[in-house]
Amino acid sequence: MSWNHLKRFGAGAVLAVAISPVWGAVADVPESQEPIKIAVQEAAGQYFNAHILGRVLEEAGYTVEYISAGYYPQVQGVADGDIHMALGLWSSNIGEGWMELFDSGEVLDAGEIGYMGVETWYANDAALAACPGIENDIMVLNDCAQALATAETFPKGRLLDYPIEWGTTNELRIVALDLPLVSQPAGSEGALVAEIKSAEERGEPLLIQFWSPHGIMADHNLTEVGLPEYFDGCYEDPAGGVNPDATYDCDWSAARIWNTAWPGTPDQWPVGYRILQNIDMQPQDQIEMEDAISKGADMDAYIEQWLADNQDRWQGWIAVAQNP
Fold it and tell me: C or N: which end of the chain has fewer Cβ atoms within 10 Å?
């Protein structure tokens, strides 16, 4: 199934993909004939990681189903048992009620995916020129916001934001910092990437919510802007920040990226659960994949090539899972 094909499915679609084993199954696996259901989203990095895990589980002998799920709803789906594994939760972008589910044991923390993430506001080169000093102090926007405006936001500048289903905390930041900006959600990751490319081609200023690692940065220059530094409690306690009357008056926090599982997973598929715990992806994996996809590579073909090129690596995840 292609990456573009996935995007045509609705939020509740169940996507079952069967790929013939190449390297052979693991002894005593599967412990259960029930398929392992893995959450998949319309973000290329998460899709890539989820399908790498799925293919490795298949090579170990499991049956896998991919469940199309929104970023925030997926954790409740794990708690309900409708999803058994979800990869790539960002601590900088936590959904309402998530931590209560982890604290209560309704969902399991299955460990980090292997790399840390950065989420923040970025400016392209034209925005740096239009708003000198924005990389050091976001408050210069008070003098140059109109340079970032669109017809819909004028006279305020535009912050091109994440899709709505990824979260809307930047609306709180804009209010807390009293910035002359409008948060304008993008439709998808692809729309964010397209805006970065088209703004550069036209030489137009762009202020955008984005993240790293991402392959677009291999060919396009984006600079972090000077939001007030994040501090513990910024999202909960207004007293500690630059605005004593508001929360979110700070940058995004550094992101731990971790995986989660339904609590029944370790008992029903113990080796499979340990494979999830062992998965170790690196920033370069993401950068190279995103760069290749942005230049027209087929996602599923890229995944198969990655598996072939990294056979020793992922077979090590299985070996450790078999012999904990």
Answer: C
Cα–Cα separations (whole angstroms), residue 320 to 57, 265, 268, 271, 307: 13, 17, 18, 9, 18
pLDDT tens digits along 88-137:
999 888 888 999 999 999 999 999 999 888 999 999 999 999 999 999 99
Considering the entire predicted model, what is its pTM?
Answer: 0.77
Give a yes or no: residue 245 inside a domain.
no
Other beta carbons less than 10 A from residue 164's beta carbon: 12
Number of domains present in the structure of the chain: 2
What the block records as the tokens of 103 is 């604290």
142 and 211 in one domain? yes
Single residue among 208, 240, 272 that ends a domain in this structure: 240
Number of Cβ within a 10 Å radius of residue 216: 18
Contacts of 19 (CB under 8 A, 6+ apart): 55, 58
Q: Which residues contact 90 (CB under 8 A, 6 or more apart)?
A: 117, 119, 211, 255, 256, 257
